[in-house]
Amino acid sequence: MIARSPLKLAILAAASTAMLLTAGCGGRAGKVRDTAFVARDVETLYNAAKDRLDRGDTQVAAALFDEVERQHPYSPWARRAQLMSAFSYYVAKDYTKSIQSAQRFLSIHPGNRDAPYAYYLIALCYYEQISDVDRDQKITGQALTALTEVVRRYPNTRYAADARVKLDLVNDHLAGKEMQIGRYYERSGRWLAASLRFRNVIENYQTTSHAPEALFRMVESSLTLGMQEEALKYAAVLGNNYPGSEWYDKAYKLMGKHAPGVTAK
């Protein structure tokens, strides 16, 4: 799991506070004694949900916000409740329901001023579910897509600024997975398959922290496959871009040992 950034937490807190303030046109409801969602007027029901959220009872809060929409679907409060439901489910780490609530909000109110936050919340839900590189990276790909969508749609917002930071981390994560698979192929003697993985990192994740090792691995793979000039090409790129790295030192020694007479054409 990738750690939450301070910026994200600040954005979430600000967005939550802003939404709650826009809804506060009535008195606070009394304590909700149980979770039986009996028919209530919209203001009382909304404030009961808000009260639960304020007290950290996020699952009940989300369910009560859902009740606002169910009991009063044509009220302006229903629109607010949809997004607050998504936020409550997110805080409760029920990411599937959070995504569903945010997507429902967007399908009904695509041009609403809170649409950027809804897209951002969807991206956060995928981002929070990213697992380590030993596991399937389907969720990582979904996070990449969702974060990219935030940047594409709302490039000048604070949500896009945070999404760009997270995109760098997601790309580094995906590159790490490619490197892991490539190393496994190397250990198995499947050098061609390994080189395809390393080349993918070089071509598609060249700004990540894995690029220097990927270049070294391409030197290693190319030499093993008998492609000395190809190995020299990757060694040169490694030297030009990462001259002081441990990976360049290893590549230099490897070239000197296995291809001492090879020169660039």
Can you give a write-up of this model?
This protein has 12 helices and no strands. The protein has 265 residues and is mainly α. It has a domain at 1-129: Alpha Horseshoe (Serine Threonine Protein Phosphatase 5, Tetratricopeptide repeat), CATH 1.25.40.10. Helix 2 runs antiparallel to helix 3 and helix 4 runs antiparallel to helix 5 (95-108). The protein starts with 5 loop residues before the first helix and ends in a 7-residue tail after the last helix. The relative contact order is 0.07.
Strand content: under 5%
CATH superfamily grouping of the domain at 1-129: Tetratricopeptide repeat domain
Shape: elongated
- CATH C-level name of the domain at 1-129: Mainly Alpha
Radius of gyration: 25 Å
Distance between the termini: 46 Å
Helix amount: over 70%
Count of helix runs: 12
Task: Briefly summarize what is shown.
This protein is mostly helical and 265 residues long. The protein has helices at residues 6-23, 42-54, 58-71, 76-91, 95-108, 115-128, 138-153, 158-187, 191-204, 211-224, 228-241, 246-258.
Summarize the SSE layout with pairings.
Blueprint: H1 6-23, H2 42-54, H3 58-71, H4 76-91, H5 95-108, H6 115-128, H7 138-153, H8 158-187, H9 191-204, H10 211-224, H11 228-241, H12 246-258
Key descriptive features of the protein:
265 residues; mainly alpha; Serine Threonine Protein Phosphatase 5, Tetratricopeptide repeat; disordered N terminus
